[in-house]
Amino acid sequence: MGKYENYTFRLVSAINEVFNEESEHFIASLDEIDATTLFTALLGASNYVFNDLTDDNKNLIEMTHVLNSLAVQHIVKNSDK
User: Fold this and answer.
1) 55 Rama sector, left if φ>0, alpha if ψ -120 to 50, beta otherwise
2) Which DSSP string do the residues of 39-74 spell out, in sequence order?
3) CA 63, CA 47: separation in Å to the nearest integer?
4) Residue 81 — very low, low, confident or very high, per pLDDT cuts 50/70/90?
5) Cβ of 47: how many Cβ atoms within 10 Å?
6) 28 CB contacts (<8 Å, ≥6 apart)?
7) CA 8-10-12 angle, 5° bins
8) DSSP 81
9) How confident is the model at residue 42 (pLDDT cuts 50, 70, 90)?
10) What's the CA dihedral at 71, 53, 55, 63 to 10 degrees?
């Protein structure tokens, strides 16, 4: 498993913990979640981590540009696989 796949797997596992009623990280059941709020919060979390790691101060719109650029970069890099 490569670094990207490992990060993805571990992040999905961590996110799933907030929907697991038996977890200490439980927030709410999936059927109680508002998708707009959830995905905006995930964007906010990504933005927070990015700004913390880079000492930058991007807002949510700027962060979407960063994420789009990373998505294109990932697809181009892996297009031959």
Assistant:
1) left
2) HHHHHHHHHHHHHHHHT----HHHHHHHHHHHHHHH
3) 6
4) low
5) 21
6) 18, 19
7) 65
8) -
9) very high
10) 30
Spans of all domains in the chain: 1-29, 34-81
Q: Which two tokens stand for residue 55?
A: 């000492």
**Which token pair is 48?**
């927070």
At 55 the pLDDT is: 98
Which residue do the tokens 């905006």 mark?
40
Distance CA 58, CA 51 (A): 7
| Token pair 């700027």: residue | 62
CB 67 within 8 A of CB 75: no
